[in-house]
Amino acid sequence: MIPRLPQQTRILLIPDDERRSREYVISRSMVFGLAALLLLLVALMVLVLISYVLISREARAASGLRQDLAAAEVRVAGVQQLEGELEQMRSLQERLLVMLGVQPLSVGDEDTLAWSEEDFSPAPTSLEELSSRIMTPPPDLWPVGGFVTQEFIAGDAARGVLPHQGIDIAAAEDTPLRAAGPGRVVMAGRDDFLGNFVEIQHGFGYVTVYGHCSRLVVRAGDRVDRGQVIGYLGATGEASAPHLHFEVWKDGVAVDPRGVIPGDPPR
């Protein structure tokens, strides 16, 4: 015969002193209700924990995607400008070859030898820019002194490791930022992630990027010397505190600035 569960549960409390004892009665339905409520609370806690983990993972992934997008936009702009300059150099080269007799003059090319002032004036600038890209030394100066708060991370998509394509250097707001090497400013403006930023093109395929500036003192097309002030440290864009986000690119690939610039940022 299967025993039946009692309809009620009595709890008797007997104090150590002479006070009267107390008796509590809990019905079986109340026990079941309390047990169901406890299970519901546990399930809700588990769901909240899972939701928090998923949201945190998505937030980290979104931050990495924004960094990748900002870096891609910088690279695309640089490539587009480089394509235009290469096309101009190709046209100048063809004219020079024809004038020197190295390349035969085809029918209809006679007009290309009529060099106007407008055609000739860009030539020295383009040649100078091409020469500077080849002969200008690579960056070798830390743009600001301070404490490194985050190192360069190459990232690993297979393992879920998000990249950090530069080094973050914390310092006082409005500290002057200096060019890491001689070169030409190819971009200077505003970005959602980097805030106010500057991109400088150096020789041997090197490009440096300076992000989160409070304000800039250079613009696109300016020639800068090594150590020249290009802006001031700030917290614009996606930055929680004043710091410089400093990137170094080599032939279109982000590299660890520590592998290019010797030593540590001065303090």
State the gist of this model.
34% of the residues lie in helices and 25% in strands.
Overall description:
This protein has 3 helices and 12 strands; from the N terminus they run ββαααββββββββββ. The strands form 2 sheets. Strands 3, 4, 5, 6, 7, 8, 9, 10, 11 and 12 form a 10-stranded antiparallel sheet that branches. Helix content is 34%, strand content 25%. The protein is elongated and about 110 Å long. Among the domains are: 51 residues, no CATH class; 122 residues, Glucose Permease (Domain IIA). With 267 residues, it is α+β, with helices and mostly antiparallel strands.
Low-confidence sequence ranges: 101-125
pLDDT averaged residue by residue: 81
Instruction: Quote the beta fraction.
Output: 25-35%
Please identify which CATH superfamily of the domain at 138-259 we are dealing with: Glucose Permease (Domain IIA)
Give helix % range.
25-40%
CATH architectural designation of the domain at 138-259: Distorted Sandwich
Structural class: alpha+beta
Intertermini distance: 84 Å
CATH class of the domain at 138-259: Mainly Beta
The number of helices is 3
Q: What is the overall shape?
A: elongated
Radius of gyration: 34 Å
Largest sheet at a glance?
10 strands, antiparallel
Q: Sketch the topology as an H/E string, one letter per element.
A: EEHHHEEEEEEEEEE
Total DSSP E strands: 12
> How is the CATH topology of the domain at 138-259 named?
Glucose Permease (Domain IIA)
